[in-house]
Design brief:
Number of helices: 14
CATH class of the largest domain: Alpha Beta
Radius of gyration: 22 Å
Number of domains: 2
CATH superfamily of the largest domain: Dihydrodipicolinate Reductase, domain 2
Strand order of the largest sheet: 1-17-16-15-14-10-13-12-11-18-19
CATH architecture of the largest domain: 2-Layer Sandwich
Number of strands: 19
CATH topology of the largest domain: Dihydrodipicolinate Reductase, domain 2
Structural class: alpha/beta
Distance between the termini: 32 Å
Largest sheet: 11 strands, mixed
Shape: globular
Strand content: 15-25%
Length: 478
């Protein structure tokens, strides 16, 4: 990635990026004093399988066409695949796959105009995986399908762009890494800010001591709202949808239009406001700016349904505190703040910075000398000293196109992508810990970064273990 120099009045610097560490140990012990919980001291086996690069046997030349497919043709999936088709990178979109026949029409008609070929509409993603001509897929399904679709794609020899949050549990993320490494498949996570060059200059500024020592990081995702919700009655599934396939790994339940169209409000399909609103974007960006720290020692989440006493599973507000030992990271999410706004196009594609005070998605980084405020999706970053004195800044643009182009380039070169599955998993673990803390009754969870397990709360550990319907299992061996 080509990086620009950032404008500043103090200092400049550069640094590299790293992938997750590896370690090994095995035993068994009673962990926290008086907890009564016995944990297996086993380092997750995916760590020994991580590869910095893949073999070049499947490398495609610049003039070789890349054949892609979309799995999950909702509004965002449609936007992504049209962005890819317009990239001018000698690609062909061959399939539009969705279990719902009412979706995908816009993507198909627009793609036919762009590429002169009408994509094939299919319901079952396995038909896409069986086509040896397909090089890669975009997995844009509800979250409960992300892991299984990615693993199946890797097993079929396809590269993957998978939407955030990439997994529905810690175990799923681990298995996705194993599949990517075993089958040497590119897995680009939909954490687009990994392709924002200004995020790297922010990282470099901090690594060179521009803020002093980091003591606190505050990540926000405060959406407009509150949003009312009225759950509908169960009904027969319409002929236009394969409801059983839509449910996939999730529990078998009767068709309900609320579950189908508002799946983000149900734990079976979603990670709640910490995922559905997009907080994973700025959480992952914060980790990148901090040079990709590993896992926290503990997580504590408080929240609830404060505005509507309805039948939604998820809270409308959450505040989570993660203890990293030498600094604290907080994640504040919700949909009950109509006075906060996300960056508009004038910020995302222009040269102006967000209005930080009521920016819905900002990152505040407090150092012992100065503070940095960063914005996702082209928001850029600025550093302030006493009396609001601006001492450094850098701006960018919405990095979606750059992220898609990086995925396509990695399909050709077999290099690891900017949003690789290892860092996608590392960021997703924070999301899962936040939700597990909330669902276990707003309890502080002690976490073992070495073993990736909760050590002090049996209820949270039980919630972390997803069960899968027959035919949709994610097994230990991928």
């Amino acid at each position: 990635m080509k990086r620009r120099k950032f404008f500043q009045l103090t200092s400049a610097g550069a640094a590299g990026m790293a992938i997750a560490p590896s370690c090994s140990s095995s035993a068994q012990k009673k962990d926290e004093k008086d907890s009564g919980i016995v944990i297996n001291e086993v380092v997750p086996d995916y760590r020994d399988q991580i590869k910095a690069s893949f073999s070049v046997q499947n490398k495609k030349g610049a003039n070789d066409r890349v054949v892609l497919a979309l799995i999950g043709a909702g509004s965002w999936g449609t936007n992504l695949i049209l962005e890819a088709a317009n990239s001018g990178e000698n690609i062909l979109i061959k399939y539009i796959c969705d279990v719902d026949d009412t979706r995908g029409g816009r993507a198909i008609s627009e793609l036919e105009k762009i590429q002169g070929f009408r994509p094939i509409a299919v319901r079952d993603m396995r038909k896409v995986f069986d086509d040896k001509e397909v090089d890669g897929v975009f997995v844009e399904t509800p979250e409960h399908w992300h892991a299984l679709a990615t693993i199946r794609a890797c097993q079929a020899g396809k590269d993957v762009y998978v939407e955030k949050t990439v997994s529905h549990s810690i175990f799923e993320g681990q298995q996705m890494i194993k599949a990517a490494m075993k089958y040497e498949r590119i897995v680009q996570c939909g954490t687009q800010n990994r392709s924002a060059d200004y995020a790297l200059t922010a990282r470099d500024y901090i690594k060179n001591g521009g803020l002093g020592e980091i003591v606190a990081v505050h990540v926000k995702e405060l959406l407009e709202g509150p949003v009312p919700f009225n759950v509908k009655e169960d009904s027969p599934a319409p002929d236009t949808i394969d409801w059983d396939m839509w449910l996939g790994p999730a529990p078998k339940v009767p068709y309900n239009v609320s579950r189908n169209k508002s799946w983000i409000y149900y734990w079976d399909y979603s990670g709640g406001p910490v995922t559905s609103g997009g907080s994973i974007h700025q959480l992952d960006m914060a980790r990148l700016i901090l040079d990709n720290p590993g896992f926290p020692k503990s997580a504590y989440c408080a929240g609830g349904r404060y505005f509507f006493n309805d039948m939604r599973d998820i809270p409308d507000y959450q505040m989570t505190t993660f203890d990293y030992g030498n600094f604290v990271l907080t994640l504040e999410t919700g949909e009950c703040t109509p006075y906060f706004q996300k960056e508009g196009p004038e910020v995302r594609f222009g040269t102006i910075y967000p209005k930080w005070m009521q920016n819905a998605t900002r990152i505040d980084i407090y150092g012992t000398e100065r503070m940095m405020i960063a914005g996702r999706m082209g928001g850029g970053w600025q550093v302030f000293d006493k009396d609001e004195k601006l001492v450094a800044q850098d701006k960018g643009i919405f990095p979606l196109k750059a992220h898609i182009l990086n995925y396509i380039d990695c399909i050709r070169t077999r290099k690891q992508p900017n949003g690789n599955i290892v860092e996608g998993h590392n960021s997703s673990v924070l999301i899962h810990l936040a939700n597990l803390s909330y669902r276990a009754g707003n309890k502080q969870l002690l976490f073992s970064p070495e073993y990736e397990t909760i050590t002090n709360n049996s209820e949270a550990r039980a919630l972390a273990r997803r069960t899968y319907r027959k035919g949709f299992e994610i097994n230990q061996e991928v």
